[in-house]
């Protein structure tokens, strides 16, 4: 099978969900081709509402719409979903606790050639800090159908990341998805690599190389960022004594911070964060940007070795 | 310079810009060709006639300012800047690639001549009004030019800015709407109805000029009229064709973006552009 992107997997899963249930509609801001809600628009034109390029208006519209008992799934690029319309997300959606699902494509360096204006590397930190919001970042196309069902079954405000570029699948085909749960996808005892979103396959790649070098690395898919799987994080730290987090996001406030917040209070453990080092990047192919800005497979491998040294 | 000669030179500049847009776009393998091509005549007239600027001194204090608010069309800006001499055309091959000065959306810290990091729609328009207000506050005799998309006008921020411009009587700013009737996924009329646009803008207190955005004479006349309009800001509603100059791109939603002509398409497109110009300059000679 050819690699597909998380956004395409999302778009397909949304159509499937649309066939199974009638309790949701889709709102778009003239980016359906970018977020892959164009599949849903074609399948269910009457359940698709075009709001124009007006994200702030769209978010408050969705808040109002949700009060009539149908869930709006609202899609935009990450920077617009997490920043352009964030105050509407907070005060129109989160505070009144409405059942609105926000799904963003174009996240981090995975966005590639469109450059820094479109490379959202703050959204996890932002949404994580808003009360009532659940935050998801699936890492593998095969878990997207489960994530979409979980999202639609969930009551309340929810933000989910997809991704722009094709990613290799590393999980099995029958993925259950549970909000609040992470999953060990590769067992290991020397170091735990906790990854989210498009970094999952890189974490897996790094663990494979480390394995060849005699290092036994655990890989955890942390696709539920809030609520986060506290028990699993503590378990990883207990088993390995060394933790690396990996995310396509700024190093401040993202997955690394979330993991550190838990370990600092429960089981202080040597940690390294693979993330963007608080800088705007540039246009380019995602794989090349990952190397230049420190979120490649090699960076994960290097950090894993460093943190193993630190436990001694 | 006599007007006929000036106009035929500007036509050639617009052709050069269109050709360079396609070359860059082809080299990058992606980008946003449609809206770059539709604004090429307007941008050519700004850079090669209307604006006071000096490529040798890009940071000159009293230069006129240009903000491409619809930043995704940056190929038109890069072509105009390179043709003006701000940087070498060798840079084209780096468009949208790593370690290059030409970003997917304009970046003032990387590209000489770029005034603002646009790309998030509507922000460039507000920033241009801020420049105009700041210039007036500082007693600077400069003008600020900004090009907006019609889809961009969906953003409420644009209308906040229109109110601001009228309230502060910013007659040192000229907004030009590249009214190509198309936005990202589809026609304006299928995404968010915009008409009656000129009436809306008039009711917001702006001096509205409506022109054919591909007619050099009309563009120059409108620029002049705007320059002589005192006490209210001016906006040009420039009727254009998205993808203008390349038959298979014209009026076609798919050529908005994430797309580039392949080698075959590039050849056809460049051929069409050249034929178009030779046809037109022929007409011009007959008139004389
Ligand atoms: C705030 C914001 N929302 C969405 C986008 C994604 N986007 C880029 S271009 C575009 C369509 C713009 O249409 P228009 O202004 O008509 O431009 P043109 O036709 O001149 O290319 C969209 C929706 C964006 N860049 N900024
Ligand atoms: Mg348009």
Task: Summarize this structure as a short list of keywords or feature phrases.
A: 312 residues; alpha/beta; Rossmann fold; seven-stranded mixed beta sheet; five-stranded mixed beta sheet; globular; B: alpha/beta; five-stranded parallel beta sheet; 5 strands; 45% helix; disordered C terminus; binds thiamine diphosphate; binds magnesium ion
CATH class of chain B: Alpha Beta
Q: Please indicate the percent range of residues of chain A in DSSP E strands (runs of 2 or more).
A: 15-25%
CATH homologous superfamily designation of the largest domain in chain A: Thiamin diphosphate (ThDP)-binding fold, Pyr/PP domains
- CA radius of gyration of chain A is 19 Å
Spatial extent as radius of gyration of chain B: 18 Å
Q: Which regions of chain A are unreliable across 5 or more consecutive residues at pLDDT < 50?
A: none
Q: Give the total of domains of chain B.
A: 1
Strand residue content of chain B: 5-15%
Distance between the termini of chain A: 43 Å
Tell me how many strands of chain A there are. Answer: 14
Question: What is the subunit arrangement here?
Answer: heterodimer
Mean pLDDT across the residues of chain B is: 95
Shape of chain B: globular
User: What is the CATH third-level topology name of chain B?
Assistant: Rossmann fold
Helix-strand topology string of chain B: HHHEHHEHEHHEHEH
Query: Structural class of the helix and strand makeup of chain B?
Result: alpha/beta
